[in-house]
């Protein structure tokens, strides 16, 4: 029985299965060997059939009263496996993106990056973090992208790794972060803008965090253990001149796709890296962070999906990586 937004959107070819971004899906799917059963709340069923669900003659639709839990409709089939029972297998099944999925992902990621460029090029030091966040959210929604995460930090708040926007002014330097979802897929991207030249101390940290990311990329190759790729990345902090345990201060990202991190990288995950799988590593240090959504190719190189040609970049180990935009 599929209940999570990521599993449902993947299985149903990008269908939107939510009403509230913070709420549970309004649909569940019982996957059978011969046919599937879609369980939908009665007040949502017609819209889902008309606008979201793929045409499938081998599926049946059960309408569940809005005041009852979706699970109640399963009845005697309540012994069906849950997602938690087969979490590793489900992640492996959706890891390698199909050509049509990759086409959707490229478009989503490109447009998300374009929104960040547009906003970074339009805000001023006196604008509030909330104003910048409003522009980011509006730009995403205008493109049919759900703004799942919008983070903004001005100069005074760059120490926070997850800076929910406040009324504080951006000041001399700002970080902009979005996680945007469309057709079930999620783009993750971070950008920095500086109003004036970046001081040498900050520029040095900005350069070195790219070396840490390069270590993550180099280890993220088809067939590798995700845990080993993660270990290679976190080991690079010390080599890049940061505290060797800096990785403990924030998560480092991981696989991406239909879930923001699918899964988040740690030393304990059992997943392996697949050809055609998306990743969003995000190494960070005080005042420095880098994050893009990439896909692993068969030749072990990464293709950066969240790329806008207007954003300034620097070559790091053969990959164009974003730098702080000095305006």
Automatic annotation (TrEMBL):
Organism: Agromyces atrinae
Name under which the protein is recorded: Peptidase M24
PANTHER family: AMINOPEPTIDASE, XAA-PRO AMINOPEPTIDASE P-RELATED
Ranges where the Peptidase M24 domain occurs: 104-297
A Pfam family per the record: Peptidase_M24
Residue spans crossing the bilayer: none
InterPro entries xrefs: Creatinase/aminopeptidase-like, Pept_M24, Peptidase_M24B
């Amino acid at each position: 029985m599929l209940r999570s937004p990521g599993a449902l959107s993947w299985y149903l070819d990008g269908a939107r299965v939510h009403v509230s971004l913070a709420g549970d899906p309004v649909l569940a799917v019982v996957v059978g060997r011969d046919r599937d059963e879609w369980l939908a709340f009665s007040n949502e069923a017609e819209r889902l059939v008309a606008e979201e669900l793929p045409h499938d003659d081998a599926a049946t639709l059960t309408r569940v009263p809005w005041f009852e839990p979706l699970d109640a409709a399963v009845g005697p089939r309540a012994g069906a496996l849950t997602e938690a029972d087969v979490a590793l297998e489900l992640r492996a099944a959706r890891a390698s993106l199909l050509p049509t999925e990759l086409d959707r992902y490229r478009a989503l990621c490109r447009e998300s990056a374009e929104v960040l460029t547009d906003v970074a090029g339009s805000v001023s030091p006196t604008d509030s973090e909330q104003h910048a966040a409003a522009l980011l959210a509006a730009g995403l929604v205008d493109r049919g992208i759900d703004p799942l995460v919008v983070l903004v930090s001005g100069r005074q708040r760059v120490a926070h790794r997850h800076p929910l926007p406040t009324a504080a002014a951006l000041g001399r330097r700002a970080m902009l972060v979005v996680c945007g979802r469309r057709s079930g897929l999620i783009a993750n991207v971070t950008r920095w803008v500086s109003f004036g030249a970046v001081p040498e101390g900050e520029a040095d940290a900005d350069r070195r965090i790219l070396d840490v990311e390069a270590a993550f990329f180099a280890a993220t190759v088809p067939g590798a253990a995700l845990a080993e790729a993660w270990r290679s990345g976190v080991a690079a902090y010390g080599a890049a001149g940061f505290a060797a345990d800096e990785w403990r201060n924030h998560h480092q990202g991981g696989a991406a796709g239909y879930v923001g991190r699918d899964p988040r990288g740690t030393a304990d995950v059992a997943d392996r890296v697949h050809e055609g799988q998306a990743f969003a590593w995000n190494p960070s240090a005080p005042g420095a962070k880098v994050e893009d959504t990439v896909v692993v190719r068969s030749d072990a190189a990464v293709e950066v999906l969240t790329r806008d040609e207007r954003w300034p970049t620097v070559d790091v180990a053969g990959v164009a990586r974003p730098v702080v935009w000095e305006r």
